[in-house]
């Protein structure tokens, strides 16, 4: 046994796990390259299609196993990988390379994958950049099948082991976590929003990703600690350290149990004001974890994943089946589905248009209004799915009344079209994301023409402060409690209140317990966040008074510097809720 070593990675799924290392060799296969003769081209293309079919059958087998063990809640990501196997960008490009450049099928797949990843690398949105890993997983599976190598983990780990791997595909993760009941995992690569991390959070498995070269330092059977809330990994802890971590695990689990005692209770303040606490999700896998943490519905369902790994448009039927599944699963809870937030910088190859500054270009609702086939297919799918649950439709990146009116006209036109076809249609509530300063400044006018407002703080803060928080040179200027941001939030909430419509918040700020009292003071009706954030936010709300929040907000608006505002909030929350910051750090993953 070596000396104790601590590694720091990305907190992917909260919780503490203590156990024995089980290293899984998931290194990329070395892809051979060779030239093929003209007479071999047909055979190589046949090999390619056989590998595609084998890959699809393997993923179907994984899906069947998971569904048998846990039901259908955790298989949407696997379905997406199966869909990617049929993507023309991948298949046709690989075939072209075999025919035109006379290369073997393995090398053609590698080149096709590289091309798709390159297109995703040009995307400014981190969400789409992080989906490059999914393209890698699919390509790796095809190549392994071409080479006759097993694409999935073959040697099962013992129950309670901690998996250490260079990377894990969602299929690996689903099998290891569902079938073999591992205690946690660590990967060298990965991000907090990778699909592997999403599956871990959905199942409540502690995980740290992006930890560097942990696999090279570990041997099977060594003791290891995974702290998924802080993003730390301790290899070969001393007996004393191990006991300390096991005690910390017990405290964490006790805190979780205590927080979850209010899971089925409303987030109602001491003076009778009720907030609805709902979730932000991207995949059906996340629903179970959301409900387990007391989520009362979905406040933001992102639909961009329907575009991942494909070169064509999602069909109306794909939209309908996906939305119906989510609505039926959550019924009668409300589900707010956001229409595509797509643009010049995040579209499949072949559908892009060059933009010097895509963040300010043709994206989101603007793009949908310019692409009526894309927009109408989605709206038809939404309206057809609406009877199966409690649907709300939300348009992103609205900058003015004209855009909102144009979008509503398309929705009404689609509804009438469906009625003529014999479909019973009842229009759902329609709202907008307020994430642009222009929308915030005319929120009073926009509020007259929609059914609800939802504040997207991530973009609203970035646009208001002209700060790209992904840019390390200016990220320090990203301040949620900047006076300009606070005034903007108050303006939006006042507009909703005057118009008599609800105002919600679906950015990361909504899930920060430290801001809960301020958000109560603003008069928001709903907060949408990641599932693990809900219990602690609910605890704060249930122990607070809305009138105290209003008083705090008035005091903060009298201050000027962001540092002073944040310090005042921390002081107030520290006095009212002793231990809040420490508990927050323990039970929630750090920002990745």
What is this entry, summarized?
With 592 residues, the protein is an alpha/beta fold.
Describe this structure in words.
- With 592 residues, the protein is α/β, with parallel strands linked by helices.
- The protein folds into three domains: 111 residues, Glucose Oxidase, domain 1, CATH 3.50.30.10; 110 residues, Enzyme I, Chain A, domain 2 (Orthogonal Bundle); 329 residues, TIM Barrel (Alpha-Beta Barrel).
- The chain has 24 helices and 17 strands.
- The strands form two sheets. An eight-stranded mixed β-sheet has the order 1-8-7-3-4-5-6-2. Strands 10-11-12-13-14-15-16-17 form an eight-stranded parallel β-barrel, surrounded by five helices.
- α1 crosses α6 and α3 packs across α4.
- The longest helix has 30 residues.
- 50% of the residues are buried.
CATH H-level homologous superfamily name of the largest domain: Phosphoenolpyruvate-binding domains
The CATH topology of the largest domain = TIM Barrel
- CATH domain class name of the largest domain: Alpha Beta
Named CATH architecture of the largest domain: Alpha-Beta Barrel
Percent of residues in beta strands: 5-15%
Biggest sheet strand line-up: 1-8-7-3-4-5-6-2
Beta strand count: 17
Largest sheet: 8 strands, mixed
User: How many structural domains does the protein architecture include?
Assistant: 3
**Number of H- or I-type helical stretches:** 24
Output the structural class: alpha/beta
Give the overall form: globular
- Write down the Rg: 25 Å
Give helix % range.
40-55%
* N/C terminus separation: 31 Å
The pLDDT mean sits at 86
Low-confidence stretches: none
